[in-house]
Amino acid sequence: MLYPVIRNLLFRFDPEAVHHFSMNLLRGVCDLGPGKSLISGLYQYRKQNLAKQVFGLKFTNPVGLGAGFDKNALYLRELEALGFGFVEIGTVTPKPQPGNEQPRLFRLPADKALINRMGFNNNGVEAVKARLEAWRRQHPNSQMIIGGNIGKNKVTENEDAWKDYVICFDRLFDTADYFVVNVSSPNTPGLRALQEKPALEKIFGELQQINQGKPKPKPLLLKIAPDLTNEQLDDIIALTKDMQLAGLVATNTTISRAGLRTAPVAVEAIGMGGLSGKPVQQKSNEVLQYLVKGLGGNTPVIASGGIFTGADAQEKMDLGASLIQVWTGFVYQGPAIAKNICKELR
């Protein structure tokens, strides 16, 4: 019950600054002798009844942290201590890039939502690769699954986008457990055009050629937006089957502003960006249900969008999700979110 008080204090400050402050504070605690054990004792769900085998990987529990929270693989130890079964790092691009101008992350407390236009700010694939290699060396017994969310640099033209995805996939192949191709962020100009079937066929054709040439191919997934039409979703379903994708992530943020409680003038003042949190929950559920039905339940889907509680997560599972990811819910619910969801899941 302490977190709502802390949250009210933190919400007085810039969201991006608070994110870095909070995670660095947690890292400082884990640096202390008994710090990590203390955090783990408070926030890890100890029962083993939620372990799942999905696309050939064993997840200690189905609650993950979505991409965009730990873009640069800086906080894996801390996130493991908080009880996440898996963490998706990135979005990672070949070259480092600063992302869009600040401020670029905004809270809508009345809607339990965030708007972000981060723009794939990250340290670049070589820096992330080095951190993941160090993590693997230092934590050889870690059971936490690490996904690599990969994207293209802002300056890369769409016709050459496949090259950026290939670079990231190739460089991170030995250090990530699975990969997610992100073509659904609304914050890189023109990126969402890559969700069209011909562009995706080119990207995944190149990636699968490399992947299937490896002794042990890695699960390859696609992350999609909640704003696609049924016809576009049908294309995604067909592509998933044709390209033998391991799974889908549904969904990313929305560009819609429909039905918000926040005053329209305040929303308009924020401007462009992807909306996440409670307002996207219903739409992401509808997309999830459509995909699961279209895929015949044969392809795992990681569900994301508006998950704050165990009931929210269970609803996604009941609609056919194999795993779930939180992000905005973490900001609003606090460090106990993974444990609380695990306790409530059937």
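That was protein one. Protein two is written in the same sequence-then-structure order:
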Amino acid sequence: MKINSILFFLLLSYFGHCQEVTIAFGSCANQDLKNSFWPEILSHNPDIWLWGGDNIYADTGNYEVLKKMYRQQSLQNGYKKLTKHCKITGVWDDHDYGTNDGGKFFAQKEITKKAAVEFLQFDKDDPVRQRKGLYSTTTIKNIRIINLDTRYFRDTVYKYYFIDTLTQKRAYGFQQNLEGDILGEAQWLWLEKTIEDSNEKFIIINSSVQVIARDHRWEKWGNFPKSLKRLHTLLTKFPDKKVLFISGDRHIAEISSEKIEGLSYPLYDFTSSGLTHTWDNKRMEKNRFRIGELIIEKNYGVIRIKENTNHYTVNLQVWGEQKKLLLEENVTLPK
């Protein structure tokens, strides 16, 4: 009987390490547009749903208007069922932050944060309610989730203008801010301590804006080279942790991968954006780090992570309307 009990607990421990975690995420959901994805997302039986930003299109600092828009989003067909099925968390981008392409100088950011915290259903005792910014962390089974705030503390990026050859209209892009910062010192220190103290060895960092892609002209970590370098350096301090980035913002889906000096594994950035809308004009966009195709369709992302004895198997999927699989990549990361 004693031997059987020992065997039982050994098997329980083994299969516990082999448990699969299913994470669904997405971004860019205009509350005034139909979103047919929620029942399909629920069918994947996710353990958690991560909002990646632009969770509503508000561009306002008016609390009552924000509440009304978030309520409208919450009443989308199937979303309430999802919130009852699994944990909800996430972060904002610019349109739910309150101003397009906004950063630290937005005057109403405390008002918009209050509305966002309520929508994202943070526990009443969650530290995010007390501190500046919307960054937070949670765990789901054996996975650590870190939501970064790339708006509240972010320095200014300046635009440049040109004539778009496809539309023949005036367009813009963003210059690099060579000395600027994205996260702010308090969030940097929190991020490092959160990774260091995490008992979970696999970490998903929800960034809102893309971390790896650097060839396009839009908002990205690449606009702040000092911050990007600091992020890489921070990750190399914790070789026993494995980090996967997710991002939104772009109204496309793609998977990017980059090898960083000092890391024993490649970094991946899984972008899923466009729950309700995508590009009007389809075009190719350069991304030297892209794996697979550029997806220019409405989409959401699903990540399945399984911890094995000496490695993680990670399945990345982009899903489109009518539950069409648009892109899939399988990744193996060493423990």
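The chain has one domain: 20-334. Keep this in mind for the problem set.
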